[in-house]
Amino acid sequence: MYDFEIERAVGEVERRRAKKVFVQAPDGLKQFLADFVSRLSKVCEVYVSINPCYGGCDLEDDKAAMIGADMVIHIGHEKFIEGAEKVQTIYLPAPHMVDVKDLASLAASELKKRGFTKVGVLANLQHVVHVGEFVRALEAAGIVPVVDRQTAGLVLGCRTGGAKRIEGEVDAFLFIGGGEFHPLGVAMDVEKEVFIADPYRNEVRGTVEMVKKTLSQRWWAIMEAAKSKRFGVIVVTKPGQFSIKSAEKIAAGIRAAGREAYQLVGDEVSPERFASFPFIEAFIVTGCPRIATDAYQDPNRPVLNEAEAWKMLEIIKPGNR
Predict the structure, then answer these.
(1) Which domains can be identified in the chain, with CATH numbers?
(2) Cα–Cα distance between 159 and 124 in angstroms, integer?
(3) Which three-class secondary structure state does DSSP give residue 195?
(4) pTM of the model
(5) Are the CB atoms for 21 and 40 separated by under 8 Å?
(6) Burial 101-123 (b: 16+ CB within 10 A, else e)
(7) Are 76 and 29 in contact (CB under 8 A)?
(8) What angle do CA 277, 282, 285 make, to 5 degrees?
(9) In which pathway is this protein known to take part (predicted)?
(10) Alpha carbons within 13 A on the beta-carbon side of 134
(11) How far apart, in whole angstroms, are the C-alpha atoms of residue 24 and residue 53?
(12) How confident is the model at residue 179 (pLDDT cuts 50, 70, 90)?
């Protein structure tokens, strides 16, 4: 189902003369690793992380170094920040090898019915290999496909530049992939409608209602946070998410508005971690911007990302109260 490029991985291990290898993969791909690990174990000692892995920004070099690994194989993501790795690392995208011809035709038909004439084509890393199939289907339906040259249509984590650069050229976007993480990120960053071509469900669906719900939740969180007196400003220590300068500036802004700011540090951000600080009324996460928008809808204590925190600070800054 997924191509883990095992021979490439073995070749890289042998070329680099790695003796002990640390493997990272997102939870959705771990279940398919048996053959990969068995083959790799013939040329080196293999350790597989049981921790969640959210992207190329979520490196576990410290854990790899702790067990004495001299190489990391990061599956399902691409390099996120140049030079972030402390242990030599290779990235295996693990494309989803599935026939999408019928899905591409269905997507083209649906978009044509809606009257779109120019459509931007996007995909996550597992499905960017299928962009060409969807381009051909759109062209066959009389629709002009537009693909960002710089990214070849790839949406990587919270980076949606591949959509924003071509927004002015299209009437709508078609995203290839499962789930809602990537297409919601695109839909929140552009003003054109985004449709999802889902290879797992073999369906095409829109994002309008999802975006309306999310925007409503985010503005609620901003306005509720503006009422708070005590804030927890969280510095995330994942290598690709570490942003202490931003956290310090936000904490200073909170204090300048006459509120209290507690500076917190952590690797994993979750409601369980928040529970240890009952005196804090609102949290600001300066790591991945999607942590706040996707995972933590606490009805009692709002959680903001960095961009939302700056909007909130505009509301509470001296002179606006």
Answers:
(1) 6-92 (3.40.50.11840), 101-206 (3.40.50.11850), 213-316 (3.40.50.11860)
(2) 11
(3) strand
(4) 0.85
(5) yes
(6) eebbbbbbebbeeeebeebbbbb
(7) yes
(8) 90
(9) Protein modification; peptidyl-diphthamide biosynthesis
(10) 32
(11) 7
(12) confident
Per-residue CA distances from 300 to 11, 221, 264 (Å): 52, 10, 19
Rounded alpha-carbon distances, angstroms, from residue 133 to 109, 149, 204: 14, 17, 15
Give the integer Cα–Cα distance in Å for 94 and 253.
Answer: 43
Exposed, middle or buried, 197 (CB in 10 Å: 0-12/13-18/19+)? buried
Helix (H, G, I), strand (E, B) or coil at 224: helix
Q: Mean pLDDT for the chain? A: 91
pLDDT digits (tens, 9 = 90+) for 42-64: 999 999 999 988 888 888 888 99
Instruction: Tell me the C-alpha distance between 167 and 279, whole Å.
Output: 44
- The residue type of 11 is G
